[in-house]
Design goal:
- With 324 residues, the chain is of the alpha/beta class.
- It has a domain of 86 residues.
- The protein contains 13 helices and 12 strands.
- The radius of gyration is 21 Å and the shape is globular.
- The mean pLDDT is 92.
- The structure holds adenosine-5'-diphosphate and magnesium ion.
Length: 324
């Protein structure tokens, strides 16, 4: 059994309009997605802005009302509030946000910010609580004098460390990291990613790591899913996605990874433009009449792709011939 199993999850937001403010339409922010997260792994969820990643993350922590489908945690459906309470789910599952300045209360000192989940769940003595907060600051590489400071007194990278310290305070099993380094400079990104990895090893945490940038996820994830318009267009191992991408949208995201290597810049730009061109020509084929990606079909035991029906059929045909 996987730690988390997401089964045909749908989250549709109502759109209200008119004089009576009636529901006139809906936004299918998440439109039937399924994937599993194994204990101790980092699972990447990647797609452009607006593809439904945050909505998926918020559904997994229980912050978003699910329209249909299931989210199983150790086999229990946590889309039901009762189950979340019984399982101590809010203790086991934490979230880190992209924007640390708005997710950390500006009027609270770091000591109180990091201690908040401890106060909610652990009920330690004042002295033990302070020790634990100091320990957490040390884990994320901040000095003890951070205790009495306020969020605005830190750089973006340091604030992200504070967010991580708060998220790991209760020894969670799963952390949803929603674009945790997207607001940081490249050099600081690497530092934050490295200590997130270290914490994962030390504490055996699983991450659902959300990003719009396939470059960031590359060195973090074991498996990943590519999300587009509320649907998954490709899922697989790191090797499947980076070395054998099949969906046109995945190829486009790969071509968009920023390169730092100056000597290759012209060649990289040319290949990105070529991929854009193919994308423009062929994208209609990869989506149905309603603009939805097709259902995923398995192309290997680990790799699934939302291929157009004719290509999927061709593939199945080749395989059955190979079997004979
Ligand atoms: N509370 C909401 N009400 C209505 N629509 C929303 C709400 N939150 C998000 N959406 C819409 O759902 C879609 C997916 O949003 P989101 O999950 O934030 O995507 P991502 O994190 O990939 O950028 C977008 O079209 C967004 O405008
Ligand atoms: Mg988002």
């Amino acid at each position: 059994m996987s730690l988390v199993e997401i089964k045909n999850l749908k989250v549709h937001y109502p759109i209200r309009s008119g004089f009576w403010n009636r529901i006139t339409d809906e936004v299918p922010a998440v439109d039937g997605i399924s994937f599993n997260i194994e204990a101790g792994e980092t699972y990447g969820l990647v797609g452009e802005s607006g593809s439904g990643k945050s909505t998926t993350g918020k559904s997994v922590v229980g912050l978003e009302k699910v329209t249909s489908g299931q989210i199983l945690y150790n086999g229990h459906d946590i889309t039901r509030r009762n189950n979340r309470r019984k399982l101590d789910y809010n203790h086991d599952v934490q979230m880190i946000f992209q924007d640390s300045l708005s997710s950390l209360n500006p009027r609270k000192r770091i000591e109180d910010i990091i201690a908040e989940p401890l106060r909610n769940f652990e009920h330690l003595s004042k002295q033990d609580e302070k020790l634990r907060v100091l320990q957490l600051l040390d884990i994320v590489g901040l000095d003890a004098d951070a205790l009495y400071k306020y969020p605005h007194q830190f750089s973006g990278g340091q604030r992200q460390r504070i967010g991580v310290a708060r998220a790991v305070a209760t020894n969670p099993k799963l952390i949803i990291a929603d674009e945790p380094v997207s607001a940081l400079d490249l050099s600081v990104q690497a530092q934050v990613l490295n200590f997130m990895k270290k914490i994962q090893r030390d504490f055996g945490i699983s991450y659902l790591f959300i990003s719009h940038d396939l470059g960031v996820v590359r060195h973090m994830c074991t498996n990943l899913a590519i999300m587009n318009r509320g649907r998954l267009v490709e899922i697989g191992t790191c090797d499947d996605i980076y070395n054998h991408p099949l969906h046109i949208y995945t190829k486009r995201l790969l071509a968009a990874i920023p390169r730092t290597d100056v000597s290759q810049r012209a060649a990289h730009r040319a290949s990105r433009l070529a991929v854009e061109e193919i994308y423009r020509e062929q994208q209609d084929k990869y989506y149905d009449d309603n603009g939805r990606a097709y259902p995923l079909v398995a192309v290997s035991p680990t790799h699934q792709v939302a291929l157009p029906p004719d290509i999927a059929q061709q593939l199945a045909h080749q395989e059955s011939e190979a079997d004979v």
